[in-house]
Structures are given as C-alpha cells and as structure tokens.
Amino acid sequence: MSCERYAGAIVEHALGADLAPDARTHLETCGVCRGRFDEQQRAMQALDAELQQALRFALFHALQAGARGEQRAIAAKGLTGPGYNGHAFWDTETFVLPLLTYTIPEAARDALRWRHATLDLARERANQLGLAGAAFPWRTIAGHECSSYWPAGTAAFHVNADIADAVGRYQAASGDERFEREAGLELLVETARLWRSLGHHDAEGRFRIDGVTGPDEYSAVADNNVYTNLMAQRNLRLAADAVERHPDRAAQLGVDSEEAAGWRDAAAAIVVPYDEKLGVHPQAEAFTEHQPWDFASTAPDQYPLLLHFPYFDLYRKQVVKQADLVLALHLRGDAFSAEAKASDFAYYEALTVRDSSLSACTQAVVAVEVGHLELAYDYFGEAALIDLDNLEHNTRDGLHIASLAGAWIVAVAGFGGMRDHDGALTFAPRLPQRLNRLAFGLCFRGRRLKVEVDQRQARYSLRQGEPLQIAHHGETFDVTGAEAVTRTIPTAPARDLPGQPPGRAPVRRRPGG
Amino acid sequence: MSCERYAGAIVEHALGADLAPDARTHLETCGVCRGRFDEQQRAMQALDAELQQALRFALFHALQAGARGEQRAIAAKGLTGPGYNGHAFWDTETFVLPLLTYTIPEAARDALRWRHATLDLARERANQLGLAGAAFPWRTIAGHECSSYWPAGTAAFHVNADIADAVGRYQAASGDERFEREAGLELLVETARLWRSLGHHDAEGRFRIDGVTGPDEYSAVADNNVYTNLMAQRNLRLAADAVERHPDRAAQLGVDSEEAAGWRDAAAAIVVPYDEKLGVHPQAEAFTEHQPWDFASTAPDQYPLLLHFPYFDLYRKQVVKQADLVLALHLRGDAFSAEAKASDFAYYEALTVRDSSLSACTQAVVAVEVGHLELAYDYFGEAALIDLDNLEHNTRDGLHIASLAGAWIVAVAGFGGMRDHDGALTFAPRLPQRLNRLAFGLCFRGRRLKVEVDQRQARYSLRQGEPLQIAHHGETFDVTGAEAVTRTIPTAPARDLPGQPPGRAPVRRRPGG
Hints:
Two copies of one chain form a homodimer.
Chain A (H helix, E strand, L loop, with lengths): L1 H13 L6 H9 L1 H37 L23 H13 L1 H13 L1 H10 L21 H5 L3 H17 L2 H22 L1 E2 L5 E2 L17 H20 L1 H6 L4 H12 L22 E2 L18 H5 L1 E2 L6 H7 L6 H12 L10 H11 L2 H13 L15 H15 L10 E2 L9 E8 L2 E8 L2 E8 L3 E5 L2 E5 L5 E4 L25
Parallel strand pairs in A: 3-4, 5-9
Antiparallel strand pairs in A: 1-2, 6-7, 7-8, 8-11, 9-10
C-alpha cells in the first residue's frame, strides 16, 4: 500500500524531481520500489544518450552544411536533399550563424562574405523596389531573388536585419577588423539605408515600418511587426556604431555623420506596439484584436494548417506558425522586461502551432528564460530529433539544418542562458529535472571558454586566451584561466505553465512517452 | 484697355458665372467683347451637345448590357469586347443596377435573379472558406469564383454587401413582394450570415471585420475597411428587416428571431475607425498613419501605378486607385455628417489617382454634395466620355459599362442629389455653372417621377401613379401629379477646392480646355 502511495513520486524522482523525506525512507527500505526506480533511471539514461546522439548528429550536419559553405550560400537543407531546391533563406543568419560564430568563427565569416558578394544584386533589388541601400533576397542561391509569392516571401524584409544581426554578432565575437572594413561595415550601412527608406515618421514623429511580413508566415503584410521593428532598430544602431569606428571607410561608402545620426534617430523613434489591455505585445499592430483561431474545431489531421485552410483565413486571425514575437523575446531580449517576457511567452504559446521547424528551438530558449524548464526540455527533443525521428515526415527532402543548429541554440542559449546583446557574453544557466549535466565550449575573441552546468551550479573556465568578463545570472566577474569559477544557480521563478493549442504541445520527453 | 480688363470675366460668364455690373455694362456696349462672348457660348453649347450625346451613348450601352441580361450576368464589358474575358464583378450591382432599378426595374430584378440562381455555388464557396451563408465570387460568368489573385480579388468581400444593397434598393423602389419572397430574402439572409461569421466581437464588444479588401485596389487585406463595414452593417440590417416582413419564409431558411437579433447587434456594434488627430475617416484602420505616396517623384508616364510599381509598395502607402471611403460617403452617406463628408472628400481627393474607371462618377457625386460643382462637372465628362474619347486607351477591349452607367449616376445622384437611404427618395439638386438644365425620369413603386433642374430651381412632377413623398434639400413634401412642385435651390456651401495628386486632376471641361 505504501508502494502505491509513493510510486508516482519515485518515478518523478528518477526523472530528477526531489523526493519527500517519507518517500525517501520508503525507497531506501523497499526492494520493489528500488527496482522500479533503477529501471526508470536506466530508461532516462537511454533518453539522455539518445539526446546526446541527436545533438551530435545535429552539430555534424549543421557544421557540414555551414563550415564547408566556403563563401557560398548555406541552404535550408544544406546539400542533403532536394527540399527548397537548394535555396538559402534567413535561416542561415538567424539559426546557423550563431552556432558557427561561437564554434568555427571563420565559417561564419565566410557565410557573411558570401552575402557581401551578393551586395550588388541586393542593391539592384532595392532600387527596383524604390528603396535605398540593399534588399537581400528572401530565397536565393546566387543572390538573385527567387521567390515569386510575396506576402509571406519577399515582403519579409526582416532578412536584412537578420543579416545585420549576424554581422554584429560575428564582429563582437571575433574582433575581426579586416572583415569589418572589407565587408561588415558595408553590409550594415546598406541594410541601415534600406530600413531608413522603408520606414517613415508619422505625425507624432514615431518611426513606423508598415506593410511587411515578420517571421511568422501565418500573418503577412502587417504594420509595425515587433520583431522586424526591433531588429531594424538594432540594424540601424549597429551601422551607426560601425560608421563611428571606421569613419574613413564610411566616407568611401558615402556615409556622413548626418546620415548615421539619422539612423540613430529613427532607431530611437521606432514604434513598438503594446496592448495595454491585455498587457502583451501584439506580434504586429492590431494582431491581438484579431479573432483567435478556432483551435477547438481544428482536427489533428488539419495540421499543418497551410495545407488545409486558405491564407486569407490564416492571415486575418490569431494563429502563429512559428516563433515571431517570441523570437524577438530571445534575440532582442534586451528590449523587454522579465515580466513582459513571461506574459508574452504565455500569450503566444497558446497561439503557436509550430507548423514550421524554425520554432521549437526558439520556444525552448524563451521557455527556459521565463522558468518553464520542463517544457523547454520537450522542445529541445523536438528540435534535435526532427530528422532522426522524421518528426515532420519529410526528412527524405533533406535535413532541417536550421532546426538542427537550433538544437545547439537550445543547449547554449536555452539551458546555458547565453546572451550576447551589445557584444557582452552573459549566462543564466538552468537545467530541467531530466538533465543532469550540460557542457559546451565557446570561441570568443581568441579565447576558448568552457561552460559546465549541473542542477545546482555552473562552472566557467578558459581553455585558451586572455581573461574574459562574463556574467552569471546578472553577476559580472572575470574568468581568468583553466581554474573554473563556480557559481550556484538560483531557483527558477515559479510561473503557471502556459498551454499550447489542443494537440500542439510538444511530445513529452520521458520514458514511455 | 477695358476689353482686356473684362476678357476673363466675360469668358467665365459665357460658362455660366455671374458678371459684375461694370463688366456687364462693358459687355452691353462693346461689339468685340459681345462677339467673343457669343463665340464662347456657342463653344459651350457644342460641349453641352457632346455631353448629351455621351450620356445617351452611355445609357444605350448600359441598358443594352443590362436590360438584355435576361437572368444572365451583366459583364464588366457587356458583350462589347474581350476585356475581362466576359467576367462580371461588383460593378454590376454597384454601378449598373442603380440605373436599371430606377429606369427598367424588371431588368434589375432579372440581374438579381441571376445572382440568386448562383446561390448554391456561393454557399459552397463560403463553406470552403469556413464561413457561414454565401460568399459570392469576385469575378465570374456562371457563378463560380474565377479569380486566382486574392489580395485585391477574392478578399474583396464587399461584393456580398453590394449585392445586398442592390437587393434592398430594388425592393424599396419596386415593392416587388414576389421577388422578395422568392429571391431577395434569401440573398439578404445568406449574405448577412456571411458577415456574421466573417466578423467577430473584440474584447470591448465591438464588431470587427479584419483582413479584407475594400473597393480601392491599391490597398489590400486591411482591418475594418470603412466602406466594407458600413455596407456590411446595411446588409445585416436589411436582412433583419426582411426577416421581420416574412417570418414564414425566413423560418423555411432556418432563420429564427435570435439569429436576426444577432445581425442587428453586430450591425450596431460595427467598428467605424476615425482618425481624431486628422479629423478624417481612415479608409481602413491605420491607413492615415501610412506614408503618403511620393507623388512629386512619380512621372506622368508611371500611371497607372500598378503597371510601374510593385503591389508591395502600393499596398503599404497612402495612395488610392479608386473611390473607396468616398464611395462610402455616397452609398452610406446616412452614416456621415455633412462636415465629415467635406473633410473626408478633401483628404481622399488628394490621394486618389483614378487608375480605375470606377472612380470618376463617385468622386463627382460626392463633389456635388460637398459643394465642388465645377470639379464634379469635370468628373462627369470623364465618366461619360470614357469610351467615346477612348480616355483609358483600351476601348478596343470593350466599353466600360460601369463608368457609362456611372454617368447616369452623376446626373441623378450627383447633380440631381438623389439618395435612397432606407427606401426614402430624396433630392438635393445643384448644377455647375456650365450646365443650364438637367432633366431625368425615375420609376418608383409604379410611379414615374420627373425631375427638372436649372440653375435656380427644381421642378418635381409625376407622369404616372399615386402621390409620392420626396424631399428637396431636406424639406419633405408630396408630389401628387403632373403639376410640378417647384423648389428653389439653396446656394452651395463655400469650401476650399481640394487638390488632386499632381497631374491627376480631371481634364477641365471647357472650350479649348
């Protein structure tokens, strides 16, 4: 009878949960329960091994696609299959380049040099659209715009800010001055010019970007998409900063101090809509006033929605294909308060159907930050196993390179809590019950940093290079060498677990499913 | 020397303007000026004759296309040419049916019976889109949706309210109970059901219609398009009224009193956005916050804009292809104050490029109402002469039947000031200087009403039928027979003439002009 009473708690204990004293006493004395506990632990270890294998598989393929790009495009499928006809998208800069930047920085540099090599085509495209600067293509192989459908294609101008973000990240993490002078500065300048001409100031002097499409492809051509505006803001500031560092090169590109000041002004005045009544950020202006999708009447076999409902219907309702506002919470986390992140994440979690493979990893990263560690772990499994388990039933078309790189992002930016806003490296690690240990290395300005995390503490050490200032959960300190700096991990904030649309929660990753 | 001083005033006098006493004295005594005056008058009379011919040509072709529809679609080009491949659009109900309703009502009835005959297809279409009721096609020959492009095509749901409006107009003007029971009621019910399911109530209980396209094809897929919302409001109310008149037939269509009450509630709660700062109605939500089109940098040969700029750019800026909010000012004039009409007209006049032939007639109607009589006269010429003068260089593709019917609309609803809100017939006639006289007949519930207007007064008489209550500039009275009721015409309100985009003003219709 006491076996029965403690059975559930003992299984959870095997998955990492704490055990109450009376249950612990029982476990120590009952052979049956001990056996059950050991069995669960072995099953969990098998899951760990599976995840470790999946992560290695993911890294192998992401690096294979990325590190051997050799100044050609890194395609959505790498060279693993015919999906997307070999085209590259924003996936490259947003999902693959963070991995490359911190592991094989010269591969990130080469990928950005490829973008730079296509600048003339991007300038031509901007000119064709009546815009200044450069408009990089939504999908391409050699730099030409190859997308014909425009509402959720060429109107997704955020690709330009994503490229700028990748330039800024690589620059901060590498200190590669030669790259900045030869390519980075020009990429930043031309994309900043694009944003400055794409947006306009309204009567109150607020800088608006109207009629563009954000990452979520179940919305299109909306005003002031929060992700787009915040990434454009960063783009404008990165460009102005780079101009300040290299006034001579900037002058050669025709940038004077007035132009750069104009970018800073636009960035400062950018519109970030907020729904005061709901206390959340709308994905784009008026998004939260639209009708919520009727999830209750949507059958499981009607996903992905795009194959069963007209875009007309998807576009006008609150339903999210993939992280959009939530991606802003990650990449522009410096623009949101902790409470806003928690409210926004919960709101969009209930609307996000994950009909795109570019979502689970981002949902995992923000889930960790706002305290939903177990949910993040489930998303982690989905991102890492997408192809090994053929989760989207289309692995025969090629691997999901961005999702695989995204598995690394979950490990490092999710459970490692790594952020790199303004070039500073900070960590806020936290592990879910079902993970005992996480370890990863990062390249940063000639250094090799090692981070090891367990349930209670994190250890930071340098394998190579000069002392480095980092932060752990808000506390700043220097890591000076091979001797690890150890810091305890504060308890995650307790928050109500948000729900997903019916049937769209990630598969619970535990023994027996 | 005095000839020179008075020359301009004397020319204007020949075009209808008053003459100051000193100029009048000069004209009476100077043979040269007298000769010039007579020449101008003859030229003006020739223009009058041209316009009269154009109007007859327009009526002939509009009636030819419409009166011989015989329960088939009235195509945009009638049977006069291959343009639009024989397809019919909302043009039929909004531009051709008003003419037919008041001149050959049985032709209007037949056109609506054609729509009714396609109801099953429209129901199927609504069902396909996950909507209730019936969704009539954007372009069709036999009732099937034949439009592939959707942002400015099938998303233009207003066609359904336009059909309902035509039903309501025909019903009020004919009192044709048999039609109402056999076809009209069902058209109203099924379109009301469509709107009820297409819109939704927001958190404040306001009824929103998101993500649809209004008449203007240089905007698409916007929230709360004012024209659409106001026409949907009328649709919902017309349906509820008809259900009240025919509860037995309504019951056969499955309508109970709760459903009809729901339509009235939605109609009462419908969102009509208003820009408080500018004091105008935005065409759709946020429209007035978008960047104005850069007209100054647009060359004359870049019109029509759709052939020279990407839709991406057109959709996100303030530029109007054709009357949209201004069409609401006409057809739903009962929902706007006189001052709002004047401000709104001025605002949209400066943004409207008239790249569609479905615009000049509507701009003329509202121009008259807000007091810009001479501007209206110029638009009148454009609507009436569109094919005789091949103004759009495409008359070889067929005649612009809606624009030709629109010439009748300018005469009757513009200079005659006829409105038919809620089934009441009202007039507010006013002639421009360049028109001496306007006369037209109207069929209304078995009567034949004759209206004659000159610069100073209007005469209303009945050629046939029972006494009829009408209104003249707000004063209600009965017309009882052949003896005309004469009323003077109040002076038009003096308002600043609004401007059009550079180069997009209508051609000034005057001798040598």
